[in-house]
Amino acid sequence: MPEFIPFALPDIGEEEISEVVDSLRSGWLTTGPKTKRFEQYFADFIGSGVEAIAVNSATSGLHLALEALGIGPGDEVITTVHTFTATAEVIRYLGANPVFVDINLATLNIDASKIEAAITPRTKAIMPVHFGGLACDMQSILTIAQKHQLKVVEDAAHAIPTTYQGKLIGSLDSDVTVYSFYATKTIATGEGGMLVTRNPEIAQRCRTMRLHGINRDAFDRYTSTKPSWYYEVVAPGFKYNMTDVAASLGIHQLKKAKTLQQQRAAIANRYNIELSDLPLHLPALPADGDIHSWHLYVIRLADSVQVSRNNFIEQLAAKGIGCSVHYIPLHLHPYWRDTYNLCLEDFPQASYASERIVSLPIYTKMTEADQTHIIEIINKTLT
Ligand SMILES: *Cc1c(COP(=O)(O)O)cnc(C)c1O
């Protein structure tokens, strides 16, 4: 048993290490052939004719997506209050305003039945977040979007390889889907992200804005009479490209995505069984036949539990178990609270959940003995 069981741990194998070394030896460190390979492989993995655009983070990808969709000052984008700040901050990058919606307590996903009430004449888009790796009610969200002519950008930072009604997230009818490969995510490149879309114009804009607004596709470099060093800047773009070092990790992590998911699902399944008699609410399960990525395993302490959530986490930490909280909802952070005058009563479900939720350790390298220890300690703490 390790001295401390962390909350999350990446799973990097020899294949990833060799590929990174190969990149280092090749002399090509930044965006190059490995990034292109990762993009092609990712697009094939999602299927449905999507294009994949590699970026240096999901935050960058979400920013590019909203920019490409024309979101600008004064526009409104509807999203969940129960998310990481990155989801909402990219809306502010463009001078637009997030409009936060409460969650469904069981799934911790945006409550789709509350979205229509949040729509105003300024609403331009909806950004659902597949919290923890469980798909949102995308049928309702896409129907609302279509009815009100809104764009949909899925924050799929947790959602590879999550499915909804049998289809991988990323292959649904939304405009753009963005994944994160941050160190703790289900597939990891340290820092990194991927944006997928079926719309060629959005793809083109995101590619241009990903690298300084440079457009190299405006002319054919091989048949053009322009020299190979020539390029045109068509917009004040960003510096959001992925490095080949990161892509080297991504190529092999993606190959393992389904295996890694099965390992996570096995851990989740054991928690589901062995914690079922305790005074806590287990995470919602996916619909029959669908895949939960199990990026997070979030329990909610029952009202009957006397120990506070913070104390529960402290007690587990004292026994060498690293828990976390996902998330402190955005309406409790000073910036969001004060900028938009948000209060607890605006989001009763998220406010309630925020006091009771705990993310338990879940990562593929967790041993059976580790999990036995975690389950034992939780049992002792709650009974
Ligand atoms: C991790 C995360 C992001 C940001 O991902 P980065 O790759 O770190 O930029 C965005 N949204 C959610 C819900 C996340 O968990």
Walk me through what this model shows:
The chain has 383 residues and is an alpha/beta fold. It folds into 2 domains: 14-101 and 108-255, Aspartate Aminotransferase, domain 2; 257-382, Alpha-Beta Complex (Aspartate Aminotransferase, domain 1). It is built from 12 helices and 14 strands. The chain has helices at residues 14-26, 33-46, 58-68, 85-93, 138-147, 200-210, 244-255, 257-274, 309-318, 334-339, 348-356, 368-382; strands at residues 51-55, 76-80, 97-101, 123-127, 151-155, 163-164, 167-168, 176-180, 193-197, 214-215, 232-233, 280-281, 297-301, 357-360. Helix 1 runs antiparallel to helix 7 (244-255), helix 3 (58-68) crosses helix 4 and helix 3 (58-68) crosses helix 6. Pyridoxal-5'-phosphate is lined by residues 57-59, 83-84, 86-87, 129, 155, 157-158, 180, 182, 193. Pyridoxal-5'-phosphate binds at residues 57-59, 83-84, 86-87, 129, 155, 157-158, 180, 182, 193.
